[in-house]
Amino acid sequence: MSTFLDNQNWRYATKKFDSAKKISESDLDFLKEAVRLSASSYGLQLYKVLIIESSELKAQLLPSAYGQTQITDASHLFVFASQTNVGDAEIDAYLKNASEIRELPIEALAGYGNFMKGAINPMPEDLKSIWTAKQTYLALGNLLNAAAELNIDATPMEGFNASAFNEILGLDKLNLTAVVIAPVGYRHTEDDTQHHKKVRKSNEDLFITL
């Protein structure tokens, strides 16, 4: 019997982490693999995921997250950053990787490559930025679900100054911009939020079957 739904009921947006508890290397590898395997549009994965362990760096980021102590108390901080300039180079890199992994001649993928370039390159830059940012949320979802499977807490957060994060982490120089972050670790016994009943819409209010 799957424990997926039980773990989804167990998880919540942790408000206070136990700073003394750290994620093991094996569990961190599991979370990274879950993020790596996440779905993304065309399979391009037009983002990077920074995993911040350094206490000093987390403390430096804290003011730019409006003093939310999940940033510093959690074992690790995941920062999902989307690419800010997408074009032929990113598509060609994907095709090269696909060719090597699937053991296909690169020419066999030319049609798909042209299809992607025809769909992506004409997009206005503002819409392209929105599209790449959306992809990071798919990866974030995998992180949240994988963490719950291990009874590890993860809190998705949009409440931070992306420009400040970009500057501190040097993301501008990497053609990246921070989109969403997730402190990951273990809930503190003093976090009363863990005892609150989960509030979600009923099936009748949420789903429409046609």
TrEMBL record:
<protein>
    <submittedName>
        <fullName>Oxygen-insensitive NAD(P)H nitroreductase / Dihydropteridine reductase</fullName>
        <ecNumber>1.-.-.-</ecNumber>
        <ecNumber>1.5.1.34</ecNumber>
    </submittedName>
</protein>
<comment type="similarity">
    <text>Belongs to the nitroreductase family.</text>
</comment>
<feature type="domain" description="Nitroreductase">
    <location>
        <begin position="10"/>
        <end position="186"/>
    </location>
</feature>
<dbReference type="InterPro" id="IPR000415">
    <property type="entry name" value="Nitroreductase-like"/>
</dbReference>
<dbReference type="InterPro" id="IPR029479">
    <property type="entry name" value="Nitroreductase"/>
</dbReference>
<keyword id="KW-0521">NADP</keyword>
<keyword id="KW-0560">Oxidoreductase</keyword>
<dbReference type="InterPro" id="IPR033878">
    <property type="entry name" value="NfsB-like"/>
</dbReference>
<dbReference type="Pfam" id="PF00881">
    <property type="entry name" value="Nitroreductase"/>
</dbReference>
<dbReference type="GO" id="GO:0004155">
    <property type="term" value="F:6,7-dihydropteridine reductase activity"/>
</dbReference>
